[in-house]
Amino acid sequence: MTIDAYKILYDSSVTFGVRKQLQAEQGMAELEEKIGSLEIAKKELENQVMEGRNKVEVIEKRANERRALEEKKRREELDFLRYQGQHLDSFQRQLGGGK
Fold first, then answer.
1. How many domains are contained in the chain?
2. 99 in helix, strand or coil?
3. How far apart are CA 8 and CA 27, in angstroms?
4. 4 or 66: which carries more pLDDT confidence?
5. 74-96 pLDDT, tens per residue?
6. 40 vs 61: CA distance, rounded Å
7. Is 12 part of any domain?
8. What average pLDDT score do residues 5-23 get?
9. Which pTM value belongs to this model?
């Protein structure tokens, strides 16, 4: 009777072990699929990051070029206004001196 009980216990434990092994194998396939899809999503996000960084670099470069151009225009305008002011001063002295 004890040996029969052990046989029944052994058979049920083998069945239980086989069932758990099958469940684990099925879970592994699902996890591998999930890993694959997550890797694809990761690559897409990395590409988006690279595109964003490239856009930022282009925008910064354009902004720096625009800023340099505006600064150059202001310097040229200031130089012109100084030149004009000097000539107006000399003209005014000539007019004042001629009276």
1. 1
2. coil
3. 29
4. 66
5. 999 999 999 999 999 999 988 88
6. 32
7. yes
8. 88
9. 0.55
23-60 per-position pLDDT tens digit? 878 878 888 899 999 999 999 999 999 999 999 999 99
Q: Is residue 42 part of a domain?
A: yes
In a domain, 99, yes or no: no
Cα 12 to Cα 5, 16, 25, 42, 62: the distances in Å are 11, 6, 20, 44, 74
Query: How many residues does this entry show for the chain?
Result: 99
Query: What does 24-88 look like in DSSP terms, one character per residue?
Result: HHHHHHHHHHHHHHHHHHHHHHHHHHHHHHHHHHHHHHHHHHHHHHHHHHHHHHHHHHHHHHHHH
Q: What is the distance between the alpha carbons of residues 36 and 43, in angstroms, rounded to a whole number?
A: 11
Tokens 């001196």 identify what position? Answer: 97
36: in domain: yes
Greatest C-alpha distance within the chain? 142
